[in-house]
Amino acid sequence: MTDPTRDPIFRDMAEQMTPGADLRRRLDAQLAAEPTAGQSPALPLPAAPVPARPVPAGPTSAPPRPRRSRPSTWLAAAAAAVLAVGIGGGVVAALRDDTGPTATSTHPASYHEIYHAVSQARADGGVLEQDLAVPGESADSAKQAEGAASAPASDDYTTTNVQVEGIDEADVVKTDGDVLYAATDQHVAVVDLAGSDTRTLSTIDLGTTGYVVDLLLEHRQGRSTLVVITDEHTGVTSVPSLESRSYSPTGQTVVRLYDVTDPAHPSLRTTVSQSGSYRTARLWHGVVYLVSDYWLWSQAVPSDPATFVPQVGGPDGTELLVPGDVTVLPCPDARYAVATAVDLRSGARTGQQAVLGGADTVYMSAANLYLGGMSYPQVLPGPGIVDDVAPKTVAGPTTSLVRLSLTDGPLAVAAQGSLPGSLLDQFSLDEYDGRLRVVTTSLAEDGTASAGLYVLDPDLRQVGSVTDLAHDEQVQSVRFAGTVGYVVTFRQTDPLFAINLSDPAHPAVTSALKIPGFSAYLHPWGADRLVGLGFAGTDTGLSGGLKLSLFDIADPYAVTEAQSLPIPEGYSEALYDHRAVFVDPDRSLLGFPVSTWGPSGEVVRYLVYTVDPEHGFTLQHDLVVKPVGAMAYQPTVRATRAGDYLYVSWNGGLDVFRMGDGALVAQVDL
Fold this sequence. Notes:
Helix content is 8%, strand content 44%. It is built from four helices and 41 strands.
């Protein structure tokens, strides 16, 4: 077998992940002061003191400016849980009921304590306990952000469809109305938007070991910055200075900042990185907030913190997070959610935090970043598994919540708690007047699903709730609008629940509209309309096609469906990723891609509708984006309008359509 220390590829990768001399000296000194690896984990842990870590200066105060992907199926989630248990070789801890004792998260004082927390996570399998909370500094949420940091050359264009106005979300396409940036594998195409004269200005070739997964774009103080996010696999993790070397497959999320003030000549400003696979990113007030998911697949070595602590990197090298930047949840999974903040003006990391327990859902308000992680218990013994006596039961998932404050310091952990059930996506979370509203789907031991809405205070303690919204139905979509929450569940028909949240302690269902099918995505339209995109159905189930719904929500006590428009196609990327929805409120336009399959293969079209509050939907354009055999199966499609042209990008190409008549006027290879 090849010695990894002699392989030049492994040596190069190891050197890239090697901490600097100062960090190595600090680690060696700390490890020498901590208990030895042979000490029994059951003994009290003498904590090696860690000096208080200076808090880097965050961005200066100024007025704020304005994937989703479905969670895995229950079966896939159960399989993941069994895998996690298999790695740890242990069993899952049982959930405590509401009357039982509670536990809190901890902030370890040494790498030794982190090591034992990781070891315990692997042994226990990672189920979180219910009703956990840590007191934190109460902080009312900032009001809605007020607009972009600086105006581009033109303001007659559309941007990424986001959840919270003013907080941009990373996506594969970004534009300022004059130039479009599109991620294509290991490249970023820079395109001049000029109608029929649209052309490529330049190409950023990253030449990495991974792929471009998302982009962000910022204009501030006369400089334009393109944020290019890649998911990369380094192959090894190593800290050669320590006596125990370990090699294991690993991945990292890398962020490159490019100066694109002159888009024809992009220049790399700086590069930062962090352990784990990319989860999501937000851009607010000149700061990028990045979250990655770091699984601990390999064996943790007590004398080698690099085997169980995330790393962050920058122009000056790579370093481990210090214990003060690590939070351990009660009974966590053996994975971290790694969150960092990067100031685009300086290119420096201004905050970092790792949460042992992970995050499946990320939601950000103007004041807080919320991490939601699901844990699944092991399938209990039953007939055919262990014996023929015990009944087979499955306990449902539990969601842990961590609030990272953006106002009390750079990514300061302010509160932690948990709720029964799982989150559908980021729209299941919403902050309003300092309180977090959360919608989950719970699963009983008999397999019965139920939806619930919970209102939590800044310490993530429950203030009010509405449970059992619909018997044996799972949440399909959620949208909050001020003091009203809209929740769609489904089994055979689509109950659209309107929930009055004006009294947080006593939320109340005011309307329950039952119609065939269900809406998978909800979008507020004006003051008294709600657009729904989902699946058509009958009184006994789904019919196989798509459906647009326009709901009249002027009276939350009597919500009605003002119009229903069936769409023959049976799939749209927009059902599962809100960024695929084209929203142009200035021109009352709504668009999304649809896919059909036939004997010759897949055809992708882009549908654009006008939305009139009184008259409903009118199809304006039916544009063929992907003829048979033109590109990969189920491509990622995005659309943006600039001036009087619609630019539709897909994997490898950009089609330009004239808004007036829908004519194809240009095609550009990306």
